[in-house]
Amino acid sequence: MDALEVEHLCGQLYGGGGNSEQLRTVSQRLESFVSQPNCLSQCRILLDRALTPYTQFFGATTLIKYFNRSSNQPIATFTERLELRTYILEYLYKHNRSLAPFVLAELAKLYARLTKNSWFDLSPNTNNLDKETYPFQTFTDDLLKFQTDPPHFSVALQLLIAILSEMSVPNDEETSARAFSKHRKICISFRDTKLLDIYLFACQYLRDVIVNQKKALGLSTDFNSYPKTVTSAQLQADYYLVVEKLLSLALACLTYDFLGTGSSVHDVDISDENQTLQVPLAWHDHVVDGSFYQLFFSYYFLFSNTSLVPLAMSCLVQLASVRRSLLNTNERLTVLNYMTFGIRSILEQAAGLLADEKSLHEFCRLIARLKANTQLHELIRIDNYPLFIETLFRFTTDHLLNVHHHRYHLSPNTLHYILSFWSKIVAFLSHSSKLSESSGDSSTSHLLDIYVPQIVCYYIQSRLDALNNDETLYLELFDNDQTILQQQLEMISVMSRLDYNKTCALLCSCFDDLAQQYQQATNSETTERRFTFLIYILGCVIGARGITLTSLSIPTDDQDLFDGELVVRVLQLMTYIQQKTAGEIQNNNNKNSINTAITTATDKIGSTPYSERLELAVLFFFEQFRRQYIGDHGRSNKIYQVLFKHLGIADEEQLLSIFIKKLFTNLQYSIITDKLIERTVGCFSDLSQGYQSVRKLVKLDPIQYFINNHTQDLFPFLHYSSAAKRSNNSNISISSWSRLRTTFYAAIGRMLMHEFRYDEDDDDRIELFMKPFTNQCNRLVQIFKEFPDFSALNAAQFATMGQFTPTLASLDEIQFLVVGIVRDLRGLCSAFVSKQAYTSLFDWLYPAYLSLFLKALFVFYDRSDVYNPLLKFFHELTLNRQERLAFDSTKPGAYLLFRETSNLLYIFQTKTIAHVNTTIPETDGTLYYKSKLKPIITCLRIIRACLIGNYINFGVFHLYSDPCFDNCLQVFLSILTSVKQKDLLSYPKLTIAYFTLIETLALVQIDFLANLNIPLFGYILETVSEGFLSTEQTIQNSCCIFLDTFLSYVFRSVKKSTAPASLMANVNEYGTVFRQILVNLLNGIIFAECKNIYAVSKPLLGLILLNENQFFTEIKQQLLYGHTQAKQAVLSTALDKLMTGIDRTLTQVNKEHFTQNITQFRNDIQDSLRGMMSNNPEILSSASSIPLSSSFLSSASTIATNIPVTIAISTLIPSSSSATAPVEELMTL
Fold first, then answer.
1. Closest CA to 1035 of 986, 1063, 996
2. Residue ranges of the alpha helices (H) in 169-236?
3. Which residues fall in a coiled-coil region (predicted)?
């Protein structure tokens, strides 16, 4: 493609217009551009001759893709990469004013990616390792010429921000273990050599901005005090952009991944309140320095209502998160005083916060992070603590909890942070020993008993009032998963326990008022919303019963009396709802009305729940109540005194009976929402957990009634047509809906385990319980009678058979029937952990019905909604939980089970895998995972469950020429050939399933793995090599066991002269891979944190003996390459001592001796390198202070046309790294 054609295609792709098919064609044509042999030169031509920014953007993104492809195996030479870096800088310098923002960002990303990929590339002219130079680490020298004016300086700052982002976060191409190891090495090196100086560089210029602004306003330039009024300074656009990027640069430094773990502060799996800034020791003096805190606080007072304030607040949030171990007690108090003084100063002039939503959000984050990293006994020691806590209380109630106070709707995340501060500071009172040690009168010094109860009351009352007419608040609290509501109420419930008497009095009063309104209101929509919110509060308050604030709270028994009053009211409401559902409003106050309203009769079948919101709220309430008062946990007699007084409920059994009736009533509704069915089944499952709960449940009449009547007629949600209806009008998928059946029957199975002894006396009851399943399976038998006996077919006939079409029922009806049965039986099987229970289930299955599921798989081999639950059922059936698969010695049950499982896997291999490989595209990630990878994961688990179950002697199959075991192993090989290595290492569940199976096969059938053909063995060995670089210790241990077992088998076979030719061919073919693994393991022991050194030492000895001739020559040179002479001497001496006293055998005793040697080897290396670093200060990060510069930015009234920068960037940031690599570096070849 020529430049004009690319220009035209870019305009079509990025300019809009055209249908999706045209855009897809254009995209495919442009994607092929990166594969051209002259891609580098062509992209430069595109950038030079581009007529539109779209072409410039395409040129930059193509270069990024090009270097992503060449990151592991460089295609471009060192000279080409260096020339390209120079070209990018010249291009940015020349065109920075005319570049579109998205083009500038992409070019900055390209420069950063190029710098990172070439970070450790030595200059070709370097001959002496002691004077080695890394040209790509001198990026700060390249930015010198960008200091001429604000637009150019802004580009330099954007390049620095891009470099920080690139160094900190692994890109999409660094997901493999090997690539991530390289990323971590670069990340740590950049942290130790550049990061601190970049941060100080940004802060110095930011400090000059504040000084100049104060001078312009006639204020003192002293940072120890803040202005009395909030001002909003106006800067020219170019200067404002520079200041904004300086703040972004400082923030990027503070959010850097200091540990090189590959995570960032933006990861959703890390709670924002629990993040810690893991800065190195070199940052200590700057963390203690109060001028940095005063600097960022000053931006609020001088640049209010601008985008600079949220950035400055974000920097303070990170500074408040510095790890506690960096500072001693006095230093922490000093820093805390800086923080609280700045916060209090802002609270006294809060107008700037209330006018800007982002500033308010970051300020509340700062307060929350302050408590997350500080304990209460430290906080009360700050200067003017009473004034600080009172000011914060006023701000919370007057501004944050007041729903209608703001010009904008307050973000729930903002409120979350401030409530988090108060709840955590209250929770500390449960550890009052530290508080009493630091203060003589702990009950009055913290003042929480004065302010926190007021906050709780204000929150409850303000939300109840706002729900009358605030639709936004209602949608926010009662969204799909109600996450925001539950998070807020969990924090309020902790705070409520501080003065529980006052809180319960308010809740009871609100409940009684709403109950009266709810009964009288003709249009109860608004009242129902408020009622729902109040019940959620009651549930969370009771759920906080386990929190004991010993210094202030009333005794637990007295709290139970208050809880009883709340439970009584909710039970009365539940009774009212049931009566409204049945249309039987009874105007009486009979204590037994609650028992008559909720029965086990079938009168609720076909009805509809009266109010889904209230039903869900009541279920939530009783779930919280169960956790505190029912089962193996809580014991309280006082609460039942209150319940008996008002409702006649005397003990736990009566209350459980009412609750179970309510759950079964929900399951009888003909029209039931997704939330309600999930919450109901979940509550029922939770009730069945624990011995005490199950012991009481099985005695209840509702449970006995269900055991004898668990039919689809009684519970419509079990009928297949119910799931079919939901597929058209539901947010929950059919598979998710039917998955609830598994959970439901698992709960029933746990009760049956306690109810039945599974002996002859219980045969009739067991048969009665299994009757619904028997009827369904008998129907399948009739349907599948016309299906041929595939066991009589040969492999060719079996593979070529077409689709089976039944005549007695439609395929969809059979599908729902099969899925329902296997999910129900899987739930029962997972609960049957005793030998008697499992044997009873297996005797029912075989030989009558187990073959049906094989036929079902043959019929539905192309439907993932069928074969996924079917395979999971067989995995559960073959799993030897608690040694339950212990068949009688006179019965061949175990062999029959394995034979049927092997036949199932054979069908999956010949039909499903063959179908998926030809029809499912890899580009559709979701469908590809569901249709292919997910069932493969289950198959790997099935094979492993059979191998480690220890209930089958697999030699019997070979003895009698039964191919079942061989077929099972062939399924494993078929899976290997159909799954790419990148998929195997990219999906965590698949990775774990594969490596655990490899470990098991190595222990059970190492001769099978060792004698595979060369390509298959190489596939396994290469994945094991990648597994050693994984961060998951489980995967590393599995690789160690495989390799140790394999090498022991090799040495044992060679010693006995019985080594097969295929075995030796594999060893000789992949000698390079074995040496690579050896080098990687030694590097991990020397330079990384090797937590499983005992497991690693086992295969390491075998690898050294396997490569003994090369170990002290080639491999030793590879390990020493790239290090200084001093470090080479240390490593060489330690490597020479490694094999002292070790025999050339792989006996267990010899391995133990080698483990001791390798442990001593690691300790000697670490001690020597640590001593070298302490004696050579150049290795440590530079922490020198920055000389003061002249004015960078003049005042708002007199802004110069140029920036008089007198500080050279190269003097602030060292241009070359230290000669000695950091200890944390991992050697990569």
1. 996
2. 177-190, 196-217
3. none
SS3 state at 277: strand
**Helix 1093-1106 with 1071-1087: angle, nearest 10 deg:** 140
Residue 226 neighbours by CB under 8 Å, 6+ apart: 294, 297, 298, 301, 342, 345
R_g (Cα) of the chain, nearest Å: 35
Angle in degrees, CA 38, 98, 136, rounded to 5: 50
Which residue in 745, 666, 743 sits closest to 710, CA to CA?
745
Is the alpha carbon torsion for 393, 396, 399, 401 positive or negative? negative
Residue spans of alpha helices (H) in 698-846: 701-708, 720-726, 734-755, 763-783, 795-800, 811-831, 835-845
> How far, in Å, CA of 1166 to CA of 1046, rounded?
31
Which residues, at least 6 apart from 668, have a Cβ–Cβ distance to it below 8 Å?
Answer: 602, 604, 605, 607, 714, 715, 716
Tens digit of pLDDT for each residue in 135-170? Answer: 888 887 778 778 788 989 999 999 999 999 999 988
Q: What is the pLDDT of residue 484?
A: 87
Beta bridge partners of 277: 322
The dihedrals phi and psi of 883, each to the nearest 5 degrees, come to 55, 40
Give the residue from 199, 110, 197, 207 showing the smallest Cα distance to 159.
110
Tokens of 761: 């006396």
The Cα 204–Cα 548 span in angstroms is: 49
Residue located via tokens 């070298």:
1172
Q: Please name the helix (run of DSSP H) or strand (run of DSSP E) that holds residue 517, with its range, or none.
A: helix 500-520
CA 574/CA 618 separation, integer angstroms: 7
Interatomic CA distance for residues 254 and 1222, integer angstroms: 21
424-483: pLDDT as tens digits: 888 888 665 445 444 444 444 788 889 999 999 999 998 888 888 888 888 888 876 788
Given a contact cutoff of 8 angstroms between Cβ atoms, the answer to whether 1041 and 998 are in contact is no
Look up residue 320 and give its two tokens.
């408040």
CB under 8 A, 24+ apart: contacts of 1182-1190:
1182/193, 1182/196, 1182/197, 1182/282, 1182/1214, 1183/196, 1183/282, 1183/283, 1183/285, 1183/286, 1185/200, 1186/200, 1186/201, 1186/203, 1186/204, 1186/1212, 1188/204, 1189/204, 1189/205, 1189/208
Asked whether the beta carbons of 397 and 461 are under 8 A apart, the reply is no
Q: Which residue has the tokens 């044997």?
A: 839
| Length of the chain measured in residues | 1229
Residue 443 CB neighbour total at 10 angstroms = 15
Q: What is the rounded distance in angstroms from the CA atom of residue 1077 to the CA atom of residue 1082?
A: 9
DSSP string, 226-274: --SS--B----HHHHHHHHHHHHHHHHHHTS-TT-SS--TT-TTS-GGG
Q: Which of 666, 692, 676 is nearest to 581 (CA)?
A: 666
Average pLDDT of each block of 10 consecutive residues along the chain (1229 residues)?
77 75 80 78 84 86 78 66 88 87 91 88 64 75 81 92 91 72 86 92 93 87 80 86 94 91 54 76 93 93 91 94 91 93 91 84 91 86 91 88 65 88 86 50 69 92 86 81 86 89 91 87 77 92 77 68 91 85 50 45 57 88 89 71 89 89 83 81 88 85 84 74 49 61 91 79 83 92 77 62 72 88 94 91 92 90 92 95 88 92 93 90 88 96 94 90 92 92 90 95 93 94 91 90 94 90 92 88 79 88 83 69 70 81 87 89 75 48 33 33 32 33 25
Q: Model-level pTM?
A: 0.80
Q: Left, alpha or beta for 218 (phi > 0: left; psi -120 to 50: alpha)?
A: left
Coil, helix or strand at residue 303: strand
